[in-house]
Amino acid sequence: MLMMPEVLLIGGGMIVHDQILPSIYQLQRLGRIGAITVCDASYDAVRRLADAELPRQAFPGQSFRMYPEAPGPRRPELYREIIGRMPARQIVFVAVPDQFHYEVIMEALRQDQHVCTVKPLVLQHRQAVEIAAESRRRGLFVGIEYHKRFDDRSLMARRAYRAGRFGEFRLGTCCLLEKWHYRRSNFQNWMTTENSDAFTYVGCHYVDLVHFITGLLPVAVSVYGIRDRYPNGNEGFLWTDARVIWNNGACLNVQNALGYPDAGPGGNTQGLTMYCQGAEDGALISHSDQYRGLKYSYVNPTSYAEPSPDYFQYVDPGGPGLTPVGYGYRSIEGLVNAAIAVERGERTLAEIDTAGVLATPANSAYNEQVIEAARESILNGGREVRIAGAAAERM
Ligand SMILES: NC(=O)c1ccc[n+]([C@@H]2O[C@H](COP(=O)([O-])OP(=O)(O)OC[C@H]3O[C@@H](n4cnc5c(N)ncnc54)[C@H](O)[C@@H]3O)[C@@H](O)[C@H]2O)c1
Asked: What are the distances in angstroms from CA 307 to CA 176, 267, 288, 341?
């Protein structure tokens, strides 16, 4: 790898606009990475991204090469050719819909590229195992972007839990409901009953976080889903209620939806409460992940908001442009730094897997086991599905 790796983003939709591209631009500004390319199947998508106002305002003078270069029919296979044009051992960042992650990641690995991907890594556990093996065989880093791990409150809870300060997790409840208007986005074309559901799409964040904090592993999952219609008539499980049982017998309830009111404050509603038990008393972890202490009432336009200063914001510490801050940025920085460190021989894949702060196919494949079990459960009316091979410690 050159001193500054090239980064190719595959997929140029919402998450790339909101978090990934600005974070990658910031790393370019800091001299950590070189040229940036974005390849989407759709010319309109890359055009929209290139024209988007905020990234342009935040990063004056910076730009990316875009593919397709001209309007035309969708080109879902174009990314293979674009990866093929890169020198070996650069970084491919995967941000296509969930059900395409596997083929895009495997193609990038076959073409000798380090990989960062949005969550979930893949939808099947055996695919995660295959990716882990290919990554090890080629000495290439693969990291999954679970940004809640980079929220300081998650790192605080993890450290205190692992030091024994909360005792043992027993019962938990968490939710992440995206706003109603998500139904009108491109999601209606792919987050449909046959591919995904509200739990698979966003529930995985808190399942991952409970493991991240406690080190426990999931052993059984049941997901009740309500079938609902998107504006284009496609059917999705847009409301879900899941129960995840852990290998110490603990139980986590997870509620997800594309249904939080558009007029509600904040970009969504979300939070995690974990009730734990010590020798003589109960213990509690309670995170409001939506309300972070800010109450804004605007006049232009008249509205009330509770913005999160913690996930991702552009701030102006004196220019040039604007600087992205928050755990959304730090998560991407952590992944890109790891890929660079592996390439330079400064960190090993085994050491990153063991540290467990960055999610890798080897250390977070329980997420795929949960997704697989969840999909089976939701398609069977919410019956409990046990995770094959899950090691129960004390059930
Ligand atoms: N909180 C999070 O971590 C978070 C949030 C949002 C999305 N995501 C994940 O990011 C991924 C994308 O989500 P999004 O919200 O940006 O969706 P989106 O629908 O807005 O964008 C997806 C883009 O991928 C493109 N695409 C599809 N197939 C392609 C192909 N073969 N080659 C190149 N481009 C292709 C589409 O044209 C579209 O522009 C999903 O896996 C989603 O789960 C994660």
From this structure: 16, 7, 13, 34
pLDDT, average across residues 112-128: 96
> What pTM does this model have?
0.95
Retrieve residue 57's tokens: 């305002």
Residue 134 lies in a domain: yes
Please check whether residues 232 and 267 belong to one and the same domain. Answer: yes
Please determine, for residue 47, whether its predicted confidence score (pLDDT) is greater than 80.
Answer: yes
pLDDT at 3 over 90: no
Q: Is residue 263 domain-resident? A: yes
> Does 76 contact ligand 1 (Cβ within 6 A)?
yes
Q: Are residues 133 and 177 in the same domain?
A: no
What distance in angstroms lies between residue 196's CA and the mean position of ligand 1's atoms? 13
297 and 353 part of one domain: no
- Sorting pLDDT into bands at 50, 70 and 90, what band is 63? very high
Which element (helix H / strand E) includes 156?
A: helix 152-162
pLDDT of residue 159: 98
Instruction: Answer whether residue 171 is part of any domain.
Output: yes
The reply to whether ligand 1 has any atom less than 6 angstroms from the CB of 332 is no
User: Each residue of 210-224: pLDDT tens digit?
Assistant: 999 999 999 999 999
Report the pLDDT value the prediction gives residue 124, as an integer from 0 to 100: 92
Ligand 1 neighbourhood includes 14 CB (under 6 angstroms): yes
Closest listed residue to residue 112, CA positions, set 33, 3, 6: 6
Q: Ligand 1, atom 22: nearest CA belongs to which residue?
A: 13
Q: Is 314 helix (H, G, I), strand (E, B) or coil?
A: strand
Q: How far is the CA of 15 from the centre of ligand 1 (A)?
A: 7
- Domain identity same for 134 and 159: no
Residue nearest to atom 9 of ligand 1 (CA): 118
> What per-residue string of b and e applies to 181-220 under the rule 16 or more CB within 10 Å gives b?
ebbebebbebbbbebbbbbbbbbbbbbbbbbbbbebbbbb
For residue 97, the CA-to-ligand 1 centroid distance in Å is 4
* Residue 390, pLDDT score: 66
